[in-house]
Design goal:
single chain, Beta-galactosidase, Chain A, domain 5, nine-stranded antiparallel β-sheet, 40% strand
Length: 292
């Protein structure tokens, strides 16, 4: 078994699995688990990193010019072993680079660095995607952290909610049984900036906010600490669980699943960004504890 890399502050301890550079444990005061435990009978993920796609592709394939390539749901980074570039008591940096295997399914010379840092009650995560090749590189990236539902602060599961920074009146999107974005827009189930969490919200899988105004949300109950998730630069937010499961995922994305019937070039896919030769971009996330 691979050893996880542990970092800590006076308030939080985080452990990161080099397989996928996945945040795999986040504890408050070394005792209270905030993160889902990855039970494979329910959902084996904990906080996977999604690259170079978010979601699924029509028929599992995408097209670049005359060439067709195949990628699994959420891409391949979550199943790749990252190198540990450096680590200290409170910081760890992981790196994934293109290799012969990745080039067969994603023909670009990418480099993906993921930096975790703990300070007080805040975990900051920065993913930097670089194009080390000499042609423009299209890509998507996403965070997928799963938090315990309920949190370990005494509130009932039914009392938990997600509170948005701003009003979110824009309609939300859904996916079909194949994981593809449907064209319909649905009324937002958010009232007074709050999304009251209930299993019925997720009977049709993930809620997708593709016109989100907020740059952060608070998750928890009326009493006890809440988890604040900040995503300063993500244009999409997904909220997901399996009905009845003991986790809720709050997912900032730079990209989105294929729309139904999409047959265009990958470079024209909604949500895909493009990096010129030598260019890089950062996707930022922070998770912190906040008083109610």
């Amino acid at each position: 078994m691979r050893p996880w890399v542990s970092i800590s502050s006076e308030d939080l301890t985080a452990e990161i699995d080099p397989l996928g550079a996945q945040l795999s444990s986040l504890k408050y005061r070394t005792a209270l688990d905030l993160l889902w435990n990855g039970d494979p009978q329910v959902w084996a993920g904990r906080a996977p990193l999604l690259f170079p796609i978010v979601g699924v592709l029509v028929d599992g394939t995408y097209r670049l010019g005359s060439q067709t390539y195949r990628l699994p749901r959420h891409g391949f980074a979550r199943g790749k072993l990252f190198a540990v570039e450096n680590s200290s008591a409170s910081t760890a940096v992981f790196r994934l680079t293109a290799d012969a295997q990745s080039f067969q399914v994603y023909p670009f010379q990418f480099e993906l660095d993921v930096r975790y840092e703990l300070e007080g009650a805040t975990l900051s995560v920065t993913a930097e995607i670089r194009n080390r090749g000499d042609v423009p590189m299209p890509a998507s990236f996403g965070y997928h952290p799963g938090f315990r539902w309920p949190l370990p602060f005494g509130e009932a599961r039914s009392a938990h909610f997600i509170e948005f920074e701003f009003d979110e009146p824009a309609p939300v999107r859904r996916i079909d049984s194949a994981g593809l974005l449907t064209p319909e827009h649905h009324p937002a189930p958010i009232a007074g900036r709050r999304l009251a969490l209930a299993d019925s919200l997720f009977e049709e899988d993930v809620l997708i906010l593709d016109r989100i105004a907020s740059r952060s949300v608070l998750y928890g109950g009326e009493r006890g600490p809440r988890v604040k998730v900040s995503f300063p630069d993500a244009p999409y937010l997904g909220v997901w669980t399996k009905p009845g499961a003991s986790f809720i995922c709050i997912e900032p994305w730079h990209g989105v699943t294929d729309p139904q019937g999409f047959s265009g070039d990958f470079r024209d896919k909604p949500g895909v960004f493009s990096l010129q030769a030598g260019e890089s971009m950062s996707a930022n996330l922070s998770i912190s504890l906040a008083d109610p």
